Amino acid sequence: MFRYYVWLAVRSLRRNPVLTLLMVTAIGLGIGASMTMLTLFRAMSGDPIPQKSSQVFAPQIDNWGPDDREKDGEPGQDQLSYTDAIALMRAHRAPHQAAMYSVGFAVTPPDPQQLPYQVTGRATFADFFGMFEAPFKYGNAWGAAEDESRAEVVVLGSKLNDKLFGGANSVGKTVNLDQHDYRIVGVLDEWSPEPRVYDVTSGSFQDTEDVFLPFNLAIDRQMIQNGNNACTSATAPGWDGHLHSECIWIQFWAELPDSAQVQRYRDFLNSYAAEQQRNGRFHWAPLTRLYNTREWMVVQKVVPNESRILVVVSFGFLFVCLVNAVGLMLAKFMSRAAETGVRRALGANRRAVFLQCLVESGVIGFAGGLLGLGLTALGLLGARALLSKDLARLAHLDLGNVLIAVLLAIGAALLAGLYPTWRAIQVQPAWQLKAS
Fold first, then answer.
1. What is the rounded distance in angstroms from the CA atom of residue 322 to the CA atom of residue 418?
2. Can you give the pLDDT at residue 201?
């Protein structure tokens, strides 16, 4: 019966192509506008580690005091000082933890015909890779022993491995970074967490780094921090002055598998800050925070409020389009009042007429969804031309967005067709037969 209703719907729509085109266009425009904004919003607000986003936390310690807090009294810091980061690492109150910061290198290719070029890097601890579920193509991460011994080892990103070694297994080989040779222990597979939650201060949607190396080694070699560095006062000169300043430039993450460990870690943070106050380093009441990855994205405003407003506005436009579609469907269904009356007189009940009209609305929605997908693709193409390079790569349709667009279009059309359908089944057969 459903196939028969679809056949009737197609015949009915072909009977009045202009009105059909208007209905499909109205729905397609609404779907195109709303899905363009929704696609960008979903990409920007995605969960980079959905399996454990509630278990990986960013601790924050107020080392600046009340004068530098936000208007709501929250700490203004989005990173840790080296002093605090190292203290948390040494306390080891989390099963897995990693301090990290962004660095940069000049890599010298093994081919002497090629010139050195700049690559991005991240100094971190071995737990980083497991916490953020970084996939390995070859080899694996270094271990805790390499962290402590300042071993000259690195993990390469897939793009740099492709560029240097043609994508071959390079584990055991060396790579020259800033005139130092490092042994490659692992190569990552394609990995691009969106957003790059482990370091939103350097850019939430930047590509992952080309090179990863032990944190302690980077500190010993005085590798300059390549990301966001914030200070509230002048620091002592030299690298040692930078390390012992109150400048914040270290990202820190801890994996806490259950609520009991989360509470113990909160207590530890508060006691640590209180100890710093007793030692004279802080002259204010301790203030600490512990955010999981989803909370951290909200606090750091990874998704700007303007994006949320644009999504609301685009769905408002979809609603306006649906109102127009309701009027067009009502005109179409009521123009067939005589046909509906004859069908009722021949024995068709209201349920049959209702289902036929709903199926016709669904066919209109499906056609509108296909048109909306085309308009969404055009909208994303325009967005890629306007957005920055980091955000432009988010502007693409995947299977999930395609399904959402089609289902949204069909659902919206069915919703829009409810009132016209209800009006259509109110037709009195006797009146229509008498009028004809």
1. 12
2. 86
Cβ atoms 64, 246 nearer than 8 A = yes
> Which tens digits make up the pLDDT trace of 241-293?
999 999 999 999 999 999 999 999 999 999 999 999 999 998 889 899 999 99
How far, in Å, CA of 29 to CA of 26, rounded? Answer: 5
Taking 3-state DSSP, the helix, strand and coil percentages for the chain, each rounded to the nearest 5, stand at 55, 15, 30
Find the helix packing angle between 350-386 and 17-44, rounded to 10°.
50
380 contacts 392 by C-beta, under 8 angstroms: no
- Check residue 209 and report its DSSP letter: P
Q: What gap in Å lies between CA 269 and CA 206, rounded to an integer?
A: 30
* Alpha-carbon radius of gyration of the chain: 30
Q: In degrees, to the nearest 5, what angle opens at C-alpha 314 toward C-alphas 312 and 318?
A: 110
* H or E, element range at 295: helix 293-299
Residue with tokens 């290198």: 105
| Span 414-424, average pLDDT | 73
Q: Encoding tokens for residue 420?
A: 């016209």
Taking the C-alpha atoms of residue 214 and residue 126, their distance in angstroms, rounded to an integer, is: 7
Mean pLDDT of the chain: 85
Distance CA(379)–CA(31), nearest Å, equals 11
The sign one gets for the Cα dihedral 124, 128, 132, 133 is positive
323: pLDDT confidence band, cut at 50, 70 and 90?
confident
DSSP, collapsed to helix, strand or coil, labels residue 228 as: coil
Residue 405 DSSP symbol: H
Backbone angles phi, psi at 297, to 5 degrees: -65, -35
**Range among 44-48, 113-117, 195-199, 256-260 with highest mean pLDDT value:** 256-260
Q: What's the confidence (pLDDT) of residue 435?
A: 47
Measured CA to CA in angstroms, residue 426 lies from 341, 353, 423 at distances of 10, 10, 5
Tokens 């024995």: give the residue: 347
In whole angstroms, give the CA distance from residue 353 to residue 163: 64
Supply 246's token pair: 């109150």
Q: Give the pTM.
A: 0.79
Secondary structure of residue 152 in the 3-state scheme? coil
Which residue matches tokens 């300042």? 150
Residue type present at position 154:
V
